[in-house]
Amino acid sequence: MPSDDLNAPLGQDKKPARRKLPIAIPQLLAGLLGLFGLVVLGWAAFVNDPLGGEPVVVLATKPVLDGTKTAGAVEGDGKEHRRHDGIEVKSDPAADKAAVPPGSRTVTIIDGSSGKSTNVVIPGHPGEKTGEPAEHHSEVTPALERKIQDVDRHGAIPKIAADGTRASVLYAEPRPLPVNRKDAPRIAIILGGVGISASGTAEALSVLPPAVTFAVAPYGADIEKLAERIRGARHEVLLQTPMEPFDYPNNDPGPQTLLTTLTPAQNIDRLHWLMSRFKGYVGISSFMGARFTANEPALTPVLQEAAKRGLIFVDASASGRSVAAQIAGSQSLPFAKVDMLLDAVPTPVEVDRALARLELMARENGTAIGMATAQPGTVKRIAAWTKTVESRGFVLVPITMATAKSKSS
Fold first, then answer.
1. What is the C-alpha to C-alpha distance for residues 266 and 93, in angstroms, rounded to an integer?
2. 344: which residues sit within 8 A by CB, 6+ positions away?
3. Residues 210, 386 contacting (CB under 8 angstroms)
4. What confidence category does residue 218 fall into, taking pLDDT thresholds of 50, 70 and 90?
5. Sign of the Cα pseudo-torsion (179, 183, 184, 185, in order)
6. Residue spans per domain, the chain
7. Per-residue confidence at 178, pLDDT binned at 50, 70, 90?
């Protein structure tokens, strides 16, 4: 029987209406956004943040112990009283000054929040105390750098300045030696592949002494700034130059490799591209290159160009067929040859053995040059060795002090 719609109670067949929010969702979102804006404005108005959200790096520094009073200094006993991490420390200025290693530099760091300034000592290398003046530690200014720069289609490359200034001298970091050690056996260590392994490069910069030379690969990112950091730490720099190995192209050193199949003009153009990647190097070193350094027609124009540009050349090809020494002599080019690859077997035991053999070579020949790659494990072993090598009668020197000088330089 059909229901009587007229007699049915009103509203009994209808579903209860849904409750509605007092505020629509778009209005709620707009309100939250407005509240966030008020918080930001309040923060900017009432919070003292002079750095404005800039990234901040916190460095552990050592205050200069130069006898000047610091905050919280107390007079009366001739000693300074400092507070460090909540602990009061007494120090004798005279003793502290004597403890600062020779060659140290003092810089002033200004706190961006409080405006207070603090003097900080950057320690020098303990082995640099010699009693005789340094041959060259002048500051390299942009004006000096422009004097030895030429510009071609690839960018700025080195040249010999009109007054005879050379990159191999301007960027050198010779280590002054005391009279009683001038004839001691010399050892030079070159760390290659710098800039390729970020962890190895960082480790090397933090633990290796300035006398270790860094050979920078031309393919790293931002290598101009990397070279500046290396030079700032007083290391000499070489430009690693990729050259053709015997098993090329199966073993490819990388873009712009110098090849025996190219004309001299093509190889020089590639060399200029490599030279323009960064500045501050004292010379170039071969990377791989066993076939190229054994080919006199291909190698001669390259070494002539290096001599013309005021550089040194380091033969790191480890090839018995290399003719680089003979060509360098005929071109009056300062030259050095790597005697041993230190991490051919990259284990701590083998690296230590290679360093021991390098010492024997230095004792027999007067000078020995070792090369290694910038890998953390290798860097760690070399760093440990550098701390004791001079106690055995050797001196650790940068590459320019282990290079056979030409008559013209």
1. 62
2. 350, 354
3. no
4. very high
5. positive
6. 62-124, 142-401
7. confident
Contacts of 227 (CB under 8 A, 6+ apart): 216, 237, 278, 279, 280, 281
CB-count burial class (<10 Å; 0-12, 13-18, 19+) for 158? buried
Which residues have C-beta within 8 Å of that of residue 159, sequence separation ≥ 6? 148, 149, 150, 308, 309, 310
Residue in 28, 51, 54 with CA at minimum distance from that of residue 113 = 51
Higher-pLDDT residue of 18, 317: 317
Bridge partner residues of 238 (DSSP): 215, 283
The CATH class, in words, for 142-401 is alpha beta
Lowest mean pLDDT among 71-75, 239-243, 290-294, 343-347: 71-75
pTM over 0.90: no
Per DSSP (E only), the strands in 42-133 are 80-84, 87-91, 105-110, 117-122
Residue 210 · residue 199 · CB < 8 Å: no
Pair 65, 100: CB distance under 8 Å = yes
Alpha helices, DSSP H only, in 253-319?
264-275, 290-293, 296-308
Question: Can you tell me the distance from the alpha carbon of 235 to that of 230, in angstroms, rounded to the nearest whole number?
Answer: 6
